[in-house]
Amino acid sequence: MSEPLPLEGLRVLDISSFIAAPVAAVVLADYGADVIKIEPPDGDPHRQNWKNAGYPRADVNFPWQLDGRLKRSLSLDLKNAEARSVLEKLIERADVMIVNFPPPARERLKLRWEDIEPINPRLVYCSLTGYGETGPDRDRPGFDITAYFGRSGILDAGRYEGAPPAISLPGQGDRATAMTLVAAILLGLRRRDQTGKGGWVGTSLYANGAWANGTTMAGAAIGARLPPRQPPDRPRNALTNLYATKDERWLQLLMVRDDRLWDKFCVAIGKPELATDARFTDREERKTRAQELHGVLAPIFASKTYDEWVTALSPTGIPFGVIGRVADVVDDEQARHAGIFADTTNPEVPRTINNPIRLGFAQPRVSGPPAAVGENNDEILRELGHSDAEIAALRKAGALG
Hints:
This protein has helices spanning 20-30, 62-68, 83-93, 103-109, 113-116, 144-151, 154-158, 172-195, 205-212, 214-221, 258-268, 283-288, 290-301, 306-313, 326-330, 333-337, 377-383, 388-396; strands at residues 11-15, 34-39, 71-75, 96-99, 124-129, 199-204, 242-244, 250-253, 320-322, 341-343, 351-353. It is α/β, with parallel strands linked by helices. The longest helix is centred in the middle third of the chain and has 24 residues, at 172-195.
């Protein structure tokens, strides 16, 4: 008999919307958890995000395959008093509950940990906020671009001197934050194994952005000077810099140990005489004369294609890479080996992105088409012991979508 998936038998209530918190539930579902997504009658707003101008253009809802897969949908109007008994029955049976309503909404809906604990003290209750559970901005709605990237300083610290901040792409900070939620949930479950008690776990987009920006933030915390970033044509170090190639790719040179690799580098780029050039023989001189050295290297790199540079530099041990184009990753053989893509049984979206966790003893489940809003209403309610007449009454009362 094959080994069960590591989270098989785990019951999860996903009472969240948009990306970060629901994606945490996706990862749990990938590895076997039974995830029930509780969403309003009109569905999670993220179901419609694929139509937004900032998303890649397509005729199918590929983001929902990514972020809604492997969940059962219960359309329950939590503002309707008749829905409360259903919710509490679900909470009684659940192992994990994930919420991302702002604190005031949780208070109104009685979805705070202190509201839930008496119903199921063994529950691991996981909440996500934009900026934290307490403080002057606890009630402010947070999205990854405003809280993870904006407030944390990532967008400002990453911009080139004199240039405006760039804008992040859809969901980047959300997906990183989702993995923190997964870790927090697993820590909560481990504590329950030890003590029999559930409890609150959680994080914020703001905290995750600051953690991602940790090296720069840690320097700021002790008063370190934060120099502005220089563009590629004005580098502080020409040997850890970007260079355009003949085929309009960008090569990232990352030769941090040029004290050992300088001579080998000069030979590899076809300029052995550069190794004895008096301007650049000393490591500190190479930094002091970084813009001058850039002026020498830029036309050299521009004279060959990126693939030609791969051939020239790969045998040397000199660290380098390409600034990859998203479209190139789709057909990248290394992406296949890294398990980046996951096949589905949904003919509209036959391939999606795998979660980044790799296990030597288990593979994520293959997903089919995501559930429609309320698709599993009757099935879930019958599992809770509701009769057909009771289900009809809930529907008539407006508690079900």
